[in-house]
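Weekly structure sync - notes
Attendees: PM, LS, DV (DV joined late)
Agenda: review two folding runs queued last week.

Item 1: First target. Sequence and structure tokens pasted below for the record.
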Amino acid sequence: MKVSANRETLLAAFQTAASFTHQRSPKPILQNVKMIAEGHVATLLATDMEVAVRIDVDEMEVKVPGSALLPVSLFSPILRESTDERLRIEVDDKGVSVFGDRSKFRLPSGNPEEFPSSLNMTADAYHEVSIHLLKELIRRTLFATDTESSRYALGGILMELEADKIVAVGTDGRRLAKMEGPATAVNGHDLAGATTIVPSKSMQLIDRALADSEEPVRMCVQGNDILLQSGSVTISSRLVEGRFPKWRDVFPKRSESIEIELAVGPAYSAIRQASIVASSESRGIDFTFGEGSLVLSGITADVGESRVELPIPYDGELITLCLDNRYVSDFLRVLSPERSFNLSIVDADNAAVFATDDGYGYVVMPLAREKRKGAPEAAAATADAE
């Protein structure tokens, strides 16, 4: 194989592919990115055997087609530190050689034929969704998943693909985030009744690998894998096995709730101020609504006390909830400060429900006052995950 590549173009694609490799894998071959060069395109392949990526790279001058294994720990620094506009890559029986205008590197290389087989998006039936929406779905739900739980279903995002929409749900059993938006089923792609849980790690990689563009994302499920393709990038991920909580049951259906509209920016600022005295052990801030204001108060024995007041459009009787300030901050952090959201509350014992007008919903269970130093629980959210 002999190719000439634009260094910056190859660097961007190679770094994305490298994030899918497993640098501590007992299988050394998985510490490489495989390059296949033919025509005017080089294809980069990488996997850790759970999630895989295929990236087609243009601006390649292929003099001799072929393939090679490129060790991430060596090839990535060469691309990053070189100042050449173009680099030449040549493969022979002794390994891989990389040439710049005034530099040359010789790298060891294994047999590319032993690399796991490549993936391709060949399905005729799939869903289409905009890249912007998919990245927003991930951003607004990923933080609510539980990557440390032994209940594997909570370590991923549930993706529900319906005829005209996509729904993403993440929960750790103490709070739950749900985001939905428009999607199009092509050629009757139907996942009705299927449980499609994508691992949190895979969703992080998908978010990084898909660049913002007008190109839609094609998504389909084949067996125990989900495939996504947009432009030059194709990604495959194993699905998580297990039962996901009946998330619709977590959103309370109640007529007696109080609805309060709040601005994201001021609310987030007030919570950050009140959280200054909070600690990992105290884990709670009192949210007191009433008489035209929201009072946020925190107290930690060894740190101090805080009291922050925020004007709100609610003049009714006082209602106090103890909420984990980190969970509320997580919700506000992924929203634009200029937006507003609706907060639905009943009393100290019922969940607080946060919602925006673009399909985003978030449920947080209150902390019992006697458990403020313990982990909050949301029995309703976890009963079906056992």
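Item 2: Second target, run right after the first with the same settings.
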Amino acid sequence: MSSVTVVEVGPRDGLQNEPVLLGTDDKVAYLEALAGAGLTRIEAVSFAHPRLVPQMADAEQVMARAPRRDGLSYIGLVLNARGLDRALGAGVDEVNVVLVATETFSLRNQNMTVAEALTSFSAIAGRASGVRVTATVGAAFGCPFEGEVLAEHVAELAWRCAESGADEIALADTIGVGVPADVRRLVAAVRERTSLPLRFHFHNTRNTGYANALAAVEAGASALDASSGGIGGCPFAPAATGNIATEDLAYALRRSGVGTGVRIDRLVSAAAFIGERLGKQVPALLGRAGDFPPEAASPSQPAQGAAPERRGSGRGAVG
């Protein structure tokens, strides 16, 4: 069986786009639930300025109380040197540094040109000794302001980051416009420039996120981002809703013969917990439909408590 690492981003990318400001206690309990589900890489916090992202204002307090265990790695999002200093001081295991593929979005998102973002990444990577550094290329599949983004341009940015010290390249479909053909095209282009491990960040905005994730695994991705319950998005991109849900992704991967090492039932519980704290039903579907086959079912026996077969209802219940 092949395998892929699922990088849980709900505590960071999920919560930062939610209007409800959760307290530190709830965030730590959320991390406990996710770690208990077997996730080994969790993007827990962002070290953006609290005025810009108030949902992440308690990043240091969250990291100070985050559960620690062997094999569990916490990621902090950093945008600049000040963010790196905070991340290192808080004891993260990895840093994720985002640069955006297009000039307009880069200026709106980070108030810097693409060239300035590359220079900033190089400085951050050069100082991030002892922690893993991921370079995430945002809007790699398309930009809300400039439209299509050339695969060769994304590959050039990936190569520049690799040369500057990145340990991993993440390609983000920030606004959820990609399709599997785009995944294959981007992988082919990036692979011509660097052999670094590839991680992908998909949104399901246009209902293609899960198909893209499966295509990425087939193309050799080593890691996939997902948000438990499917919460969150990008607060700086118009209509960038719909992170793919960790439990729905894990289900699709398991049924496709791809191992993740996570407990789907515990992921569903974690999503229910965070949905309750946010006061809403999470977008993920597995918690509503249930796993398949049900845990109590066998090939010849219906699940315990399953309704008996009814014939001739005439209601067209299938599909």
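Discussion on item 2: The chain has twelve helices and ten strands.
Action: LS to circulate a short write-up before next sync.
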